[in-house]
Amino acid sequence: xxxxxxxxxxxxxxxxxxxxxxxxxxxxxxxxxxxxxxxxxxxxxxxxxxxxxxxxxxxxxxxxxxxxxxx
Length: 71
Fold this sequence. Notes:
Largest sheet: 2 strands, antiparallel
Strand order of the largest sheet: 1-4
Shape: elongated
Low-confidence stretches: none
Strand content: 5-15%
Mean pLDDT: 82
Number of helices: 1
Distance between the termini: 44 Å
């Protein structure tokens, strides 16, 4: 089962109904073979890990980053 990843909700074209727009409900679980999951895999994460793999873009308070900018 898949769920909409938090912050990924968007209106998308329904893959089976021409011209129909739909916003998948983040409160619902979708089957792995659901047409929406198949057509828009970037929008869904595993039911076991609802947040998916999210990279932390900024340092947390007190955290020091060790990478340097490329020039």
